[in-house]
């Protein structure tokens, strides 16, 4: 039987450190997209599983040898796809420590350090977003599970008011829950409803305006037609335009109906950390629950989402697990299992703690403001080119662009930019029209990065238009 060998740990970690440093050094200069696909990766990695095994350092070398070709440079300052933020240095380093400690952070007794760090990080986030200070907070894998967790609490809350115990009795025979969203709601809301047994047929979509903002009057009219428990899902930061629903007005309508208001703020909730942007999210504090990602704008490594629920008891009751063999706290100590769907989990809140403590309020504000400034810069540079049209009001970090008012040309420019490699961005369909979607959410993106990227986009556009 193998024994615990600190020498082998040191050798593998030294190797990993050297390989990781080389990867990071190349990051600002490399082709931003992945160059190889499944066939090349399978050819490099597939092998019979050996009987005796291989040297760990050789395995690390093998994996690292494929990283430049088989990974997208998601942490590159010129990666603008899917609202993916690159890891902040202290966040990455802390995540290494989290893996080294190898804590199952589900209950306090296993890891008081992880529990305390997550408790403090939760407090800081409530303060940063200026949300009710006694709200429940859970650190989950991403905004999909944050929406799931919040909507589980919402399901509990609205059925509790109707006299139904969904945790004990399930949904069979329960009052039918209606869920109202805008026509622009994110697909993670639909998926969460499927997971929760509410189902997508419970969805009522109301009209949105040209920027993707829910129309309050359409919401009011829809609610007037519904009987029984209601959950309304609003949005802070449309995935295409970055637009915010009129949250204060929506909150007033929802409260008058005694419904639950949930806000999907995957990246938009971070506008609350900026003095210049927080007006976009005016009234968000009136909601009953909020979902966001820390691996987007806080730039901690994947994976880390955050679920926040005003009524902590609704949150805890919807999530908590109890078993005779566990040692669970009855005091002030935090058991993460009370706030998240997972039982076994990594201590993902610790990098949040480290990053918030390193940046402080001003640092977080600067990170958010800087990304939005770079988005405006790129929008202005692209709009200056004849034949290029920015289709959205650039209120946050999202830019939608069309080329020659032509779907095929727009898609060709997106593909051409991805292939050219200066930057990477994705395409989308917006109001039945093809568009390029630029998402700026990396702490390291500079004015020069934005300028170089816009220049590359224009260069590809000109070459295709000239054909």
Description:
Strand 10 and strand 11 form a beta hairpin. The chain has 467 residues and is an alpha/beta fold. The N and C termini lie far apart (67 Å). The protein has 3 domains: 68 residues; 262 residues, Aspartate Aminotransferase, domain 2; 105 residues, Aspartate Aminotransferase, domain 1, CATH 3.90.1150.10. The mean pLDDT is 96. The chain is globular, with a radius of gyration of 24 Å. It has 15 helices and 11 strands. Helix 5 runs antiparallel to helix 13. Strands 1-7-6-5-4-2-3 form a 7-stranded mixed β-sheet, sandwiched between helices. Strands 8-9-11-10 form a 4-stranded antiparallel β-sheet.
What brief labels describe this structure?
single chain, alpha/beta, Aspartate Aminotransferase, domain 1, 11 strands, seven-stranded mixed β-sheet, 467 residues, Aspartate Aminotransferase, domain 2, four-stranded antiparallel β-sheet, globular
Uncertain segments: none
CATH class wording of the largest domain = Alpha Beta
* Count of alpha/pi helices: 15
Q: Write the CATH fold name of the largest domain.
A: Aspartate Aminotransferase, domain 2
Count of DSSP strands: 11
Spatial shape: globular
| Fraction of residues in H or I helices | 40-55%
Strands of the biggest beta sheet: in what spatial order? 1-7-6-5-4-2-3
Structural classification:
alpha/beta
CATH homologous superfamily annotation of the largest domain? Type I PLP-dependent aspartate aminotransferase-like (Major domain)
Distance between the first and last residues' Cα: 67 Å
- Please give the radius of gyration in angstroms: 24 Å
Largest sheet: 7 strands, mixed
Number of domains: 3
């Amino acid at each position: 039987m193998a024994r615990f060998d600190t020498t082998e740990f040191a050798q593998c970690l030294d190797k990993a450190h050297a390989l990781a440093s080389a990867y990071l050094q190349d990051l600002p200069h490399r082709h931003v997209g992945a160059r190889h696909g499944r066939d090349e990766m399978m050819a490099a990695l597939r092998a019979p599983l050996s009987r005796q095994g291989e040297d760990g350092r050789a395995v690390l070398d093998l994996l690292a040898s494929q990283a430049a070709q088989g990974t997208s440079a998601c942490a590159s300052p010129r990666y603008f796809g899917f609202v993916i933020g690159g890891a902040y240095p202290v966040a990455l380093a802390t995540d290494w420590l989290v893996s080294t400690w190898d804590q199952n952070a589900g209950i306090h007794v296993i890891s008081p350090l992880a529990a305390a760090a997550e408790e403090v990080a939760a407090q800081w986030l409530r303060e940063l977003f200026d949300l009710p200070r006694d709200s429940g907070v859970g650190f989950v894998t991403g905004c999909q599970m944050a929406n799931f967790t919040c909507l589980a609490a919402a399901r509990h809350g609205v059925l509790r008011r109707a006299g139904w115990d969904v945790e004990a009795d399930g949904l069979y025979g329960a009052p039918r829950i209606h869920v109202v969203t805008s026509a622009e709601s994110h697909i993670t809301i639909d998926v969460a409803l499927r997971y929760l047994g509410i189902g997508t047929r419970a969805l009522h979509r109301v009209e949105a305006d040209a920027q993707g903002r829910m129309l309050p009057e359409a919401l009011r009219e829809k609610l007037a037609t519904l009987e029984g428990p209601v959950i309304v899902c609003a949005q802070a930061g449309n995935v295409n335009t970055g637009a915010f629903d009129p949250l204060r007005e929506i909150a007033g309508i929802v409260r008058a109906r005694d419904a639950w208001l949930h806000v999907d703020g995957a990246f938009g909730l971070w506008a609350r950390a900026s003095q210049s942007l927080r007006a976009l999210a005016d009234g968000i504090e009136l909601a009953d629950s909020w979902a966001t990602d820390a691996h987007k704008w806080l730039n901690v490594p994947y994976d880390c989402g955050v679920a926040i629920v005003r009524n902590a008891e609704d949150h805890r009751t919807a999530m908590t697990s109890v078993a005779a063999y566990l040692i669970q706290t009855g005091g002030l100590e935090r058991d993460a299992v009370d706030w998240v769907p997972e039982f076994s989990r990594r201590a993902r809140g610790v990098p949040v703690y480290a990053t918030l403590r390193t940046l402080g309020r001003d640092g977080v504000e600067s990170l958010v403001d800087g990304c939005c400034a770079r988005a405006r810069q790129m929008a202005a540079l692209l709009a200056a080119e004849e034949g290029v049209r920015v289709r959205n009001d650039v209120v946050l970090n999202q830019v939608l662009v069309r080329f020659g008012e032509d779907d095929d040309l727009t898609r060709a420019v997106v593909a051409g930019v991805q292939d050219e490699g200066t930057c990477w961005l994705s395409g989308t369909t917006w109001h039945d029209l093809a568009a390029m979607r630029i998402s700026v959410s990396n702490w390291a993106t500079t004015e020069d990065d934005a300028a170089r990227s816009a220049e590359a986009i224009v260069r590809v556009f000109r070459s295709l238009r000239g054909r």
